[in-house]
C-alpha cells in the first residue's frame, strides 16, 4: 500500500483552475518528483497534500487514512508530514529555535528535542549557525534550516517545494544528501516538486510531469526523461519549453 | 494670564518639587501609574485576545466587528465618562457595585478606551504576518493554541507597540477619569486631573511639575519600547525557546 495517495485533486481559485484531477502515489522510503514549469501547480499540490489548503475536489489519503474530516483528525495526519517551502520560511527566533519549533509545538520532551536537534544540525552542517538570527543567513543556509526543521520531526512523508531553488551547489548538495538519507535510512517517503530535470534524475525513482495543472505522464524518472511520451514533456525536458 | 517668566519659574519650581520627592507629587504619580497600569494590563489581555480572534477566526459579522473596534479607537473620553457615570451612579444599572468615585471606576473607564486601541493594533500586526508564514505554522501540526502563540510571536513587536500605545492613551486621559473618579485628593486625583485642577487654581508650579512627570513617563515608555524592540528582534518569547544548558 502506498504511503500517500492523491486521488483526483482539483483546485480552483475563483474562476481559475490550478489543478485538474491530479492523482499520484508515493511509497514509503521512495523519493517521487513532480516536475513541471513555473506556474504548473506544483506548490499548490504540495500545500493541499500538507493539508494547509483544501482541495476543491478529490482526496488526500495518507498512511491508508483519508485526510477528510474534522480539524482534529486532519492535525493528526498533518503531524505525519513536513513541508519545506520554496522560499524558506523562518520564524523570528534563532536558528536553533527555528529547528526545534515543530517539536516543541507538538509537545515533545525537552531531552528528546535536544538530542534530535543535535543530530540534525550535524547532518545539515548547521552546528556553527545555531545561535544566528535567520535574517543574517544566505538563501542556501536558510533552506538548510527549513529542511532541518522538517527532518527533525521525523515525518513519514516529506514534502519539498524546490528545496534547492535558493541554494548554491554546495548547499544544494548538502540538502540532496540529507533528503536521500531520510528516505533510505528512515524510510521517509518524499514528494519533491522541482523544475530541474537533473535534480529529478539524481533523487527521484518516479517522476510525474505536471503541466498547466494536469499530470501529462508519470513513470520511472530515467525513462520519463530519456523517452518522454508527450510532446510537451519532451519539449520541457529538452529545454524547448520556457521554464 | 501667566507670562513666560511665570512659566519658567514654574518649571524650575516644578523640577524642585520632583527632585525633592514632594509627597503630593509622588502620591498622585503612584495613583496614575496604578490606574493606568491596571487598565493597560487588563486592556492588553482582552485587547490582544480580541485582536487575535478578529485576525485569525472567520465568522459571520467579522467585518462589522472589525469596523466597530476601529471606530471605538476614537471614542471621546467624555462620552465614556458620561455613560460610565450613569451606569455607576446610585440609581444606575451598576450602582449596586458602589464604584463611583473610586480608582476602580477610573480603571474601568480607561480600560474601555484601551481595549479597542490594543485590539486594533494587534489585528493589524497579526494581519501583516505573511500568508506563507501562517501556512508554515499550520504545517507544523501544532494545536490551535500553540499555532496562535507562534503567530503572536511573529507579531510580537506590533503587540508590544499596541500595549505601549494603550498605556500612553490611558495615562494621558483626563475626561473620563475626572467624571467617574471625581478628582478627590488622596483618593482619585491622577496626574492629568490634578494638572487641570491646579491650572484652574493658578497653581502653575505644581501643575508644571505634574506635567513634567507625565512627559517623563511617556518618554520612559517610548525608550523602553525602543529597547525592547531591539531585544525582541534578536530574541524570542520564552515559551518558544530552547532551554539551553550552557554555551555550545
N-to-C SSE string of chain B, H for helix and E for strand: HHHHHHHHHHH
Helix content of chain A: 25-40%
Task: Give the oligomeric state of the chains in this entry, treating copies of one chain as homo and distinct chains as hetero.
Answer: heterodimer
CATH class of chain B: Mainly Alpha
Please give a quick description of this structure.
Chain A has 243 residues and is of the alpha/beta class.
Key terms:
heterodimer, A: 243 residues, alpha/beta, Rossmann fold, six-stranded mixed β-sheet, four-stranded antiparallel β-sheet, 10 strands, B: 248 residues, mainly alpha, MetI-like fold, 11 helices, 74% helix, 0% strand, globular, disordered C terminus
Describe, in plain words, how this protein is organized in 3D:
The complex is a heterodimer of chains A (243) and B (248). Chain A is α/β, with parallel strands linked by helices. Helix content of chain A is 38%, strand content 26%. A 6-stranded mixed β-sheet of chain A has the order 6-7-8-3-9-10, with helices on both faces. A 4-stranded antiparallel β-sheet of chain A has the order 2-1-4-5, with helices on one face. The two termini of chain A are 34 Å apart. The mean pLDDT of chain A is 94. With 248 residues, chain B is mainly α. Chain B has a single domain (18-234), classed as MetI-like fold, CATH 1.10.3720.10. In chain B, 74% of the residues lie in helices and 0% in strands. Chain B contains 11 helices and no strands. Chain B has helices at residues 4-19, 23-56, 62-72, 77-88, 103-127, 131-139, 144-154, 156-171, 175-181, 191-201, 204-234. The model of chain B is unreliable at 242-248 (pLDDT under 50). Chain A binds chain B through residues 47, 50, 52-53, 75, 78-79, 81-83, 85, 87, 89, 91-94, 96-97, 100-102, 104-106, 110, 113-114, 117, 130, 133, 153, and chain B through 132-133, 135-136, 138-143, 146-147, 150, 153-154, 156, 233-236, 240-243, 248.
